[in-house]
Amino acid sequence: MSARKETDKMxxxxxxxxxxxxxERVKDARLCPHCSKLCCYSCMQKWLTEQRAQCPHxxxxxxxxxxxxxRWVEEVTEQIDHLKSKKSASNFEDSNDxxxxxxxxxxxxxxxxxxxxxxxxxxxxxxxxxxxxFQPLEKVYxxxxxxxxxxxxxxxxxxVELISLVQDVEKNVEGVRNAxxxxxxxxxxxxxLMIARLDTHLKNKLLTLMGQKNALTQETxxxxxxLQEVEHQVKVCTKDQLLVKSAELLHMxxxxxxxxxxxxxxxxxxxxxxxxxxxxxxxSVFQIERFSQLRHKGDxxxxxxxxxxxxSWRLKVYPDGNGVVRGNYLSVFLELTSGLPETSKYEYRVxxxxxxGSDCTKNIVREFASDFEVGECxxxxxxxxxxxxxxxxxxxxxxxxxxxxxxxxxxxxxQKCRDQQWHIQQLESQSATQITQxxxxxxxxxxxxxxxxxxxxxxxTDVSFLSLSLLEQSLT
Length: 476
Fold this sequence. Notes:
Subcellular location: Cytoplasm
Mean pLDDT: 85
Structural class: alpha+beta
Domain B box-type: 95-137
Protein name: E3 ubiquitin-protein ligase TRIM37
Radius of gyration: 49 Å
Number of helices: 9
Domain MATH: 281-408
Number of strands: 15
CATH class of the domain at 282-418: Mainly Beta
Pfam family, one: MATH_2
CATH topology of the domain at 282-418: Apoptosis, Tumor Necrosis Factor Receptor Associated Protein 2, Chain A
Order of helices and strands: HEEHEHEEHEHHEHEEEEEEEEHH
Strand content: 15-25%
Distance between the termini: 104 Å
Helix content: 40-55%
Oligomer: single chain
């Protein structure tokens, strides 16, 4: 037990003077000024130049000039090696070699056939190992130790590579996070500039409106003061005084009313602000005529296509309702008939126009955002009650028509640019196909013209040759 404790102490002492990079005895020792770990100068130099400028143990920023040279370590490690070798020799003699249980002799032979350690008596006289292959135990032991140490060295190299890979992944993670933060900073800066521009537009609109309001307020105050003055004169003046001032008061009224009211009527400032993030809606109007007849048929009706950036949209309407709501509700859906192959989200708005008067606040508006695939419909099965269409003013009974306005847009300008890029690629592909077809037709025409030129002397070929010549000119 005491020998085991001494061995553990020796191993702990050896570990203190082991390079934490190569895991071997430290050579030309250097000390990290941050974590005080010992390492070989060559190992640390290779690490700092080939990997990154930081300590592999504590990850602190480190340069070669910062390392502390420990000259005394060499002497200490030599003494430790000397003690270790003496201790190993003693242990090997005392315990590692062992004793043969049969002959109580030191085991010095290795039987390769049986793969066991035996003494020289067992090898020579035991009879159990006759005609077997033998090797000196010390040589076999050294061979196994060398193999183990070689594999150990390979594992240490693998460990260093794995540590390097872990650090590369950490560096990648850090790069990804930094890139994300950079995009966030860009977006925030862009949004702040957009908000500043919106504030400027608002300020300009308010300045115009305040100017209009001030002009009207001044005129209002002038009229109020004149009215107050006239009422005062009427109350305090005697009849003869009022008759004398009557002409003056009438003249004052005439001066005030000389300025036409049209001069106070100004154009309304539109309450619209351009968004630099979300694009505007593209819209189309669908007027459903002969609505009552279409209800009796029960089939869906379709609007004209709304083509935007290569995508084709149309409104699909069930005048008498769809499915379980048939006969009770107007069903309205938006359909993507052609577009990108992948699913994409789009915002859409369906509006039913109120046809009695011009109050747009009475229009029925439904707005939502859905993921569309080509051929897929999204909308509202219960858009509006059929029995209320006429009474609420949405069905023009004279013309028997209902008017629907549908609008659609991608949620961001990024997606809109993606749609446009896809449309451009489709147009370029079509153009390339048409150019190929034209080239093929030109080649065929050239062959036909050559053939007709060769046969030009034959009767009855002039008209055909002239037609082919004109066709060649049109294709050129």
